[in-house]
Amino acid sequence: KPLCQALEEPKIKANSEELPRSRSLHTAFQALHAFRREQGHLPRPRAPADTERVLQLARSLGTQEDPLDEDIVRAFASVSAGDLCPVAAVVGALAAQEVLKAITRKFLPLNQWLYFDALECLALAGATQLTETDCAPRGSRYDGQIAVFGANFQEQLGRQKYLVVGAGAIGCELLKNFAMMGLAAGPDGELVITDMDTVALSNLHRQFLYRSADISKPKSVVAARAVQRMNRDVRVTAHQNQVGPATETLYGDNFFRHLDGVASALDTLEARAYLESCCFRCRIPLVDSGTEGLLGNVLPMVPALTEPLKPASAPGDGTFPLCTLRYFPCTIQHTLQWARDEFEGLFQLPAKHVNQFMKDPAFLEQLPAGKALEVQDSLRERPRDWRDCVCWARRHWQSRYHNDIAQLLHTFPPEHETSPGVPFWTGDRICPHPLTFNPDNDTHLDYILATAHLFAQVHRVPPCRDRKATQDILRGVVLPPFVPQERLQIPLTQEQEEAQVPMDHRQLTELTQDLLQRRQELMGDEEAQVPLMEPIHFEKDNDIHVDFITAASNLRAENYGIPPANWLMSKRIAGRIMPAIITTTAAVAGLACLEIYKLVWGCQDLSCYRNNNIFLRNCLLLRTQPLPPPTYRVGPSPW
């Protein structure tokens, strides 16, 4: 419809309960435009005469299908000259997502009118008593906010002491909003930001407080500086710590009781649950925010007023039964998780255990026999140069993609049956086939290069990325033929996989003596560095790490006839990267700040708070009243 017709015959996106409210807002906007044409300005904040004139104009329009809600029109008119950063963030995010839909031609665009309001903020006890004098302009950057909530409220905002946990995508949006709102910008205010992470290249496209020059710098420090640039009055402090059991001496009960509230911008369910438990125990308000792609949610927790936040459940945490990963993968997710476990088992844990053993030989007593064997292998296989690293990677390739599969097929041949007429290799059990190494195969060579590079890094050997030189080394490597083991037990269930066969006492004694002797030799070696090895932690933004994961996973997939994944898909799945879209984070941060307005007022009316769920794919926003906390009766009194 053209605008003139749509104004008179609006098609509004709203459910049946919200439709009358949206129609009243539609009429209120038309009356507001009529008032501005008539008076040449917007209604003055909280001016009764201007508010009543807007109401008269709304009544005269006569375009309502439902009875006009005059209270909504009055509330709308009384604050229409103001502007709030959180509302701008929500509306801006909705509009930006519609632009993206138009550009990408993905998802159904909004058809005609959508109204969003947070008029429950005006129903707060402090807001209903405001006068025109309270909301008059002061010539400050906060005049738009003062027009809505008054000057005294602005002073309250400045005195707030808040903790923001997480300076990622949501954290950046929250901090920007806080700077614009003036939270903790008064003489007694305090804003603490904590995040143990550093800025990475992959953060820059959606975490807008960071720039290329900030890569590898602490997020909290960079974010605090950005807040200061936006509003130099904000009293902000940057911490580089995780909020968890390990930091309870720093973030204990006394720390939390010093705060007025906490804003959570964490990306793991475990961390969010821990933070919620701290706030619940110390009776500190918490606003919890989260996103996943085009989905987002905001949940306020007010002690003694709302129910405690329920721990959310992840749709999939990336864990699978060990026997599935080791012997019976059937999806690319299985092979990628197997590759992640390989990375940790080859380049992180053995190096960590060797360093601890070299520091304290008594550490050996804490290790299972299998891990002690890994320490022995790591000390035996120390490379001297790049050739040794390539040879080690080649042997490992043969073990993983040929010998292990050949052994599995020896134990369970393709024609094996679990019972007469019931084949073993059926359903999710895909019968594999061993691979034959070819140095001219790109995937084979990619695996060798990445594996040898990481092995060299662990042992502090200079790496080499020359493919031709590496191929020449590989052509000279001769490996013994595979000889299957008879009567080798392969676990078929999780329980069998977890059941370990203990090493006998004689073998364990010999292993311990050998390790102690090797330690003594290395301690006397002047060229040996301390720590001896360099553990490598998987980093999704390190290309060599992703190269290994991609090649290792795709070779495993080839063993089992599973379609491979490209480099970017492997990085996303193995790095457990959740699709993060800046429009969602902006909307979620705006909704969170609307709840913080209510907390600053000290509102104890449950009907004013909202649990928020947003679905930008459909431009759908669900805002519901939180549930009260459960009550228990002890004797004659409820608790």
From TrEMBL:
What pathway, per the record? Protein modification; protein ubiquitination
Please report the stretch or stretches of sequence annotated as the Ubiquitin-activating enzyme E1 four-helix bundle domain. 1-61
Q: Does the keyword Acetylation apply?
A: no
Every THIF-type NAD/FAD binding fold domain range: 142-606
Any single biological process term in GO = ubiquitin-dependent protein catabolic process
Coiled-coil residues are none
According to its UniProt record, what is one Pfam family this protein matches?
UBA_E1_SCCH
What family name appears in the similarity comment? Belongs to the ubiquitin-activating E1 family.
Name of protein:
UBA1 enzyme
